[in-house]
Write a structure and sequence with these properties.
CATH architecture of the largest domain: 3-Layer(aba) Sandwich
Shape: globular
Number of helices: 13
Distance between the termini: 53 Å
Number of domains: 3
Structural class: alpha/beta
Length: 274
């Protein structure tokens, strides 16, 4: 009724409410959420979903978007790339092996069919593996399938910005891609070394000596932390920040914001590229 009155009389009506039903009845363009941060700064967010508004009122964490990934390295990349306001609206779930991500996303969709899901694969996930997993998981039968999308991390970046692959064109897993990216970009290498407060040549040598062959690439951050006498958490954080200086992840951030705005493009399968 209020919306009709405002439209008819061309006026603006300002009202507050704690009612989920009242908020849900308003068009998103008419919703503004105002919150005070821990530092006392007042922030406003336009066009929020009902879920975000209710979460802010109740103090509970009701995500507007689930992001499903493989492990803590992927989670660190995602968290580092996204802004604080966006991180407040999402929930990241590290669910293990790449072969099971679509099955896990299907289970999640069955439990929360109205919450969008973004599956994020490591850079070495192939188009064929995505298609095979799509078939075996039967994710297309999940009730919220039209709200599910996917993204794949880039396989590093050379000095000219192109992705780094082996001689056969195969994409590298994130840890190998990070090592290759830092060694291929002198400015990025230096900035990462500065974050770690180590000499750039010492850091270059540590990277070159770190064993990240297929099957053992998860040891990268342990080996680096041992070589430069820092804990693994600090090492992972700096390497990810350096890596993100070189690779283009703007498309990922844009995809997340688009999905948060209620715009979905479905689950594209790459059969034509197999």
């Amino acid at each position: 009724m209020l919306v009709k009155i405002a439209d008819k009389k061309d006026i603006q009506i300002i009202t507050t409410s704690h009612s989920e039903w009242f908020i849900d009845a308003l068009p998103r363009v008419a919703r503004i959420s105002i919150a005070r941060t821990t530092s006392g700064v007042v922030q406003s967010f336009n066009g929020v979903t009902t879920r975000t508004a209710v979460a802010g009122i109740s103090g509970t964490n009701l995500p507007e978007l689930y992001i499903v990934c493989e492990d803590d390295v992927a989670e660190k990349i995602i968290n580092t790339r996204l802004s604080t306001p966006v991180r407040r609206r999402i929930k990241i779930l590290s669910l293990g092996a790449k072969q099971h991500l679509q099955s896990s996303a299907k289970t999640l969709s069955e439990a929360h069919p109205l919450v969008p899901i973004l599956i994020v694969w490591d850079s070495d996930m192939t188009d064929k593996e995505i298609l095979d997993s799509h078939r075996s998981s039967q994710i297309s039968e999940s009730p919220g399938y039209n709200l599910i999308e996917w993204f794949r991390f880039p396989s590093g970046a050379s000095e000219d910005g192109s992705e780094i692959t082996d001689i056969t064109g195969k994409r590298f897993p994130p840890e190998i891609a990070m090592k290759a990216t830092l060694l291929a970009n002198e400015d990025t290498l230096k900035e990462t070394a500065d974050l770690l407060r180590v000499d750039v040549e010492e850091f270059r040598n540590a990277l070159n000596s770190a064993i990240v062959a297929p099957g053992s690439h998860h040891s990268l951050f342990y080996e680096l932390s041992q070589a430069i006498a820092l804990d693994q958490g600090s090492t992972l954080d700096a390497v990810v920040r350096g890596y993100l200086l070189a690779v283009d992840m703007d498309g990922f951030a844009g995809q997340v914001e688009r999905m948060l705005n209620g715009e979905f493009k479905g689950f594209p399968l790459q059969e034509q590229r197999l």
